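Re: folding output
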Amino acid sequence: MEDAPTTTSSTARRPIWQRPVSRRAVLATGATGAAAAALAVLWKGNDLSQILNQVRDLTHGYQGALTSERVRMAHLLRRAGFGATRTELDHYVAMGQTAATEAILNYTKTSNAALESQLPTIDLGSSTPPTAAAIQSWWLQRMTLSARPLEEKMTLFWHGLLTSGLDKAGSAQLFTQNQLFRSMALGNFDELLKAVSKNPAMMVYLDTETNRKGKPNENYARELMELFTTGIGHYTEDDVRESARSFTGWTLQGGKQLRYATASQFVPRLHDAGAKTFMGKTGTFTGDDIVEMLVPLRATAVRLTTRLFGFFAYPNPDPEIVNHLADTFQKTHYNVGAVLREIFTIDAFYSDKAYRSLVKTPAELVAQTLKATGANAKTYTAAAVAMAPMGQVLFYPPNVAGWPGGTSWINSSTLLTRINFANAATQRGQGSLAAQSLGQLSDTLLDANVSPTTRDGLQSFEAAHPDDRTGLLFMVLATPEFQLN
């Protein structure tokens, strides 16, 4: 989408994300004085995506990037979680790569008592459901403070793939679904899909709660194949119709207050128990039967493992990688944890192609910023609100396909929102990072690996303002490098 041009210049005709980041625009973030001047240097260039690509290319060669054990660990903690404090990074580095990877994967052995004691109570027993802000800030606090980072990262992954949203479903339903994703995050995909099919949030979002014998609703049946399993080209319209018939019979408990219902029930008289023919097989199928026929298919294995690799490593992996991961998925009875173990241990995950190849999602950026600056309960609520102009509202994906992601996260508007958030977070923050030197901040947050332009901008600010540690932390969080994951 292009802004309406006010002149006939080449700049005015460019899409907004390809226009220069002007000093005036930088000043609009709320940063002033030397910080604004240095930001103009940090983001010097004509094309935002080009700047990020240049930064990525320039920083790949720094001491071999991922040949450093500390940088490898920081990379793993960004991808498998939401970054790390200096203390957390030191802890995992001391464990060694193999032990740390296993600890991250086997997170159920790690106590999360400290987090649980801090979280606000979300009361689902009340006649009034929780507010959207309450469940958003609750989840953001988990992302920031959890001792089980992969648990929250996978919950975010499933929320973006098996989508439901507040535009149709209720907040209590979305909260319950969030708990479901967390509890089954690394389990077997077929079991997760069966549970999601009967989850009230999904039932309301894709209309299976109105799917009845004689009047089947095809919405969920279609998206189950198109988006959740095989993808387009591996099923027919007859398969969609027969699948919809199979999923009939499930309804919500709770009478007329459908958006409040957090439990579902099977009503036999509403189920079409007749024979159906699905993908060449005939039987009196139920929804669980449909899932059990879809998940073993190679197309499902390829599609899901490609999505997982793209989420954790980089997009468009080579066929050899996809085939290896798809084999693992099928050999382990569709176990997602087994696939992630392969992703986190293959060479491609620590390759130059993987390093800083992804733009931080707003959730990743905000959680890492709060981790760096420190936060209190009010901060999480404000941060959840601040994510909206960055392009991501938790529990409110734009459509059933989820967020598009990639470089779409960065344009002139969202960039300035990100920088403004960094400025606000550092002003409110209580974290220990604000007292650290540039070298320490760079090591913890930027892998001590920045482009010459970034290095010059940060050093210039520190030289001009040696006592402004809060401002220095803001500058580090505003760098192009920090926008990359």
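--- second protein (sequence, then structure) ---
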Amino acid sequence: MAAAAAVSSVDESVKALGDSFDGIPVIDVGAWLKKDGAEVDAETIATECAKAAASLRKYGCVFARDPAFDSKDNDRFLDTLEKYFETPEDARMKDTHPELSYQVGATPAFTELPRNHCDRMKAYKDTDKPLSECPPEKDCKWRFFWRIGERPAETKFGELNAAPVVPEGIPEWTDVMNTWGGKLLGCVTCVAQMAARGFGLEDDAFSSRMDMGPHLLAPTATDLKRFGKEGTVCAGYHRDLNFLTIHGKSRFPGLYVWTREGKKLAVRVPEGCLLVQAGIQAEYITAGHVMAGYHEVVVTPQTLEAVERATAAGRSIWRISSTLFSHMASDGMLEPIGKFASEEAAKDYPPSWWGTRSRPSSRQSTSRATQRRPPPRRERSSHAHPGS
């Protein structure tokens, strides 16, 4: 009851959503983890689930406070990625696999190209416009893909489930990536379950479809020595193609998100929290009730302040994002479910394989991608990657 009430009032005052940071609600994953015990009452659980669902609908994202999260793990991850990207570029190029459309290993700078959303961008108020160019330009960031979780023994989408690439000279790499990626996947799975209950679905309506998905730890890296001028776009305006994306806190701010009403928000991840964003699979499975959230990363005055502090301390000024893309299983059917399924929804979101929404040909943010026309409802609505 509480969940349904909160979701129905999603367009009312943000205050109704409870704990928030910069207006974006913060949900307590710890309460969900204790739901079967006597420590947390049912009303608290219902409220947290309602907040998860309402925030994903209104903002396309939500902050999650998870007791399993340790800032030391995030720091260890960032340290390791900084160490890797400080190595010579020629060495990193050995870790690239263009024959797999960069689905594993490293992706060089100026490879990923966001889809053209110029019409949408021009429709925003001046204060809400992205800084990304129209038409879009290739991103100056690098990326590294590392698979997380088990993969199916047989699949129609082998390139989504390829073996990982382990860089040379960093013996701790596998442990660091698996530890941090595993924690991110655990948290985003809980958020998926909380949102499902908040939407009035079965708890596992989303998470069961995530089982054996091609989840990817996909940190980005921007060399702020080369691309540290204020206003530089590190990641162009886009949406994510996966289900839910989860991020740890970056050492260099610069992420902006857009609400479904088109309001631009600067994101500051609270200490002890993770950021979860909705992707196109989430939009598809809810028939647009949740819209895939648009976002971009740019160099801001706050980014430059962080660069000054890092330089003074003798630290790396590669901007690393600790990003994980959670996916629905590649061989599952992609279509609206439960109360979101209807004849009208089937027209706008026709059934297709999950994997066809995550194949290289569907990844509009890579330079090899095919520019597909999404369902009309999605393009008419306000609402990344990889992304679109």
